[in-house]
Amino acid sequence: MGQNTKISIIGAAGKMGQQIMSQAQASDKFTLVGAVEAKGSSYLSNDISSFIGGKETGILVTDDPLECILKSDAIIDFSSPSPTIEICELVAQARKVHVIGTTGFNVDEEEKIKAAARHATIIKSGNMSLGINALLGTVKNLAKSLDSDWDIEISDMHHKDKVDSPSGTALELASAAAKGREIDLDSSLDVSRNGSELSRKKGDIGIVSLRGGTVIGDHSVVFAGQGERIVVSHFAENRNIFVTGALKSAEWGVGKGPGLFSALDVLGIEN
């Protein structure tokens, strides 16, 4: 790990982008060298201080990601699927570190990320918090210990402006449960109950998505048996938990070499 990791932020004007830049600026472990937003953004050519506060930094928001990638050790990306895939391919060519906090990828996009990881160090996680990643391990172990007579349901709540559903975190929790049960997630996942005569299929893993207010992220996994239930939950109270995880991932990735990793790898939690 370098003592001073040079980073650029993709999705710089978003909620996560702003908080990551603020924390990086206050740290002696990181040097912020670039901030990227989409073409046409009203933030382009503005000094980042105009929206994160503080003194002018000389770092102007740009729509040229390649320029930022070339002068960075690591890219931290909280944008949206399409630009993330574009960035992923550029990072692979430059052999840099790409921390992906973006969620909502389709199957084809996931395959492109895997391909890019043959050349770049990619750390991808639907949730960067220590608590959620500890919960993933708990869910996997419970699913392994409890047979299919225990139904698994996941509650996924976020703020009203979140655009993807289910969230990346909910899908990671479902994946952890499927790994514990040693079943295929795609064939057992149920996210679209609507109508009548929809009895639950044994072995399904259900997700219900709730959106409203300013909720940062509330997740519960219910193991429902005959006459008893086990409920394990995580509640995010502020975004700093994700910021810390993203920065830790960027620092961890420098010098690691190509591969597709997750926050579990960064935290040393068995996947």
Offer a quick outline of the entry.
The protein is α/β, with parallel strands linked by helices. Helix content is 36%, strand content 23%. Helix 4 runs parallel beside helix 5 (107-116) and helix 6 (130-145) packs parallel to helix 7.
Query: Helical proportion?
Result: 25-40%
The CATH topology name of the largest domain reads Rossmann fold
Poorly predicted parts: none
Distance between the termini: 22 Å
Order of helices and strands: EHEHHEHEHEHEHHEEEEHEH
Estimate the strand proportion.
15-25%
CATH C-level category of the largest domain: Alpha Beta
| Spatial sequence of strands, sheet with the most strands | 2-1-3-4-5-11
User: For the CA atoms, what is the radius of gyration?
Assistant: 19 Å
Number of helices: 10
Overall tally of structural domains: 2
Mean pLDDT: 94
Q: Shape from CA axes? A: elongated
